[in-house]
Amino acid sequence: MVGTVLLVFGIAFLFYAVLPAVGAVFARTRWRTFRATVTRASHYPTASPAVIGSPRSQPLGRFRFFGTLEAIQGDDRIWLTNGRFSVAADLRNVRVYLIPEMERSESFSPSAPGASPAALGSVPWNRIFSLPEGTPVFVGGTMFSEEGRAVFRDSRSNRLLVVIHDCPRESVVMHAISGGRQRNEYINAVTLPSVAAGSLSLVLLAFTLLSAAERLPALLALTAGLAPLAPFLPPGVPLYFAYRGAWKKARLLRVQRDVVRLPLRWFPPADTRPRRATLLPDLEPYLMVRGTRDPSRPDCIVSDGASLELPPGITRVQVSLPRRGRAAAETDGDVVAFCGYSEDGEALKLRRPDDPMADYVLLPGDPEDLARQSEQSARASTLVSAAFIGLDVLLNLPLVFVLLSLVIR
Predict the structure, then answer these.
(1) Which DSSP string do the residues of 118-129 spell out, in sequence order?
(2) Three-class DSSP category at 204
């Protein structure tokens, strides 16, 4: 009997835990790779006619391009234009990512109650059968010169990034980072078939054991076979909804962590100067400026004793942190702005950057501190969610076993 009981637990562990966990790792890795690719592509310079050289097919380097669909040539090549310049992209074996329609807002609160960043979709190019002319498309990757024309191509060393977006160009990076992740890694392409196969196997094993008059192992097998339904049954079902709430909070806190850390990619680490300047990929000046809120002028910040007017339309990122961190932020009034700038003599003027992939945001505190606190809160919420679902199962499964033992004599 011991061997049979171990077999029951082994089947349940394999199909309910191991295989879904493998699928979760693949899902998280795929989206993490996507977010890293978007971040990397933001560092590429913009493709322009000036970089097209020899008519022979040769790599020109890594570039990015915002355009609209001009034409589809054959099965795998698309032509994009920005109104001044056209490029082609070969999409054989390329996965296309889809950002749903959304508007740019002057405030962004990734972890506020009720927040839910729009989930991105992805589909292989050969599954897309038609696209209307004028569809906004972003591509980033290795660009080649082919008969005097620019062509983006995929390669194993540098995968071609293709994003179809229904949002403003300035929002593509923000929405890709916030929405490019699995809502729940456990619910993936492997989970449903694995859980169904495990449940069916255990139920069949239970009937086999019943025919052999092994009642206790049969009850255990049948209980394990019904385990996927246990979280949705009373009295533990409130714990299931508590688990979902805590898991969503953890996911949104990870979104917040990535969003507040995102602008730092333009600057070298370990630098606490109040003002840090750099050049964007297209050699546009870009600035990170630390300061405090100006009580008398809400649209200004004070940095190094000088009052700087915030440019119109800057996105004000709102964060949700533990009570201690939130109170400290409200008390200090520290802010960090990321934007373009120009110098007029000794005067500094902040402005919207021309680069659509450059962050144009105002953060309510130091980005590293905000990211660290967000990460800690996300881990705590993940542990809480695991505790809720564990208690739910531990509460309901014994009741299922007792009910089955009353029915099966």
Answers:
(1) PPPEEEEGGG--
(2) helix
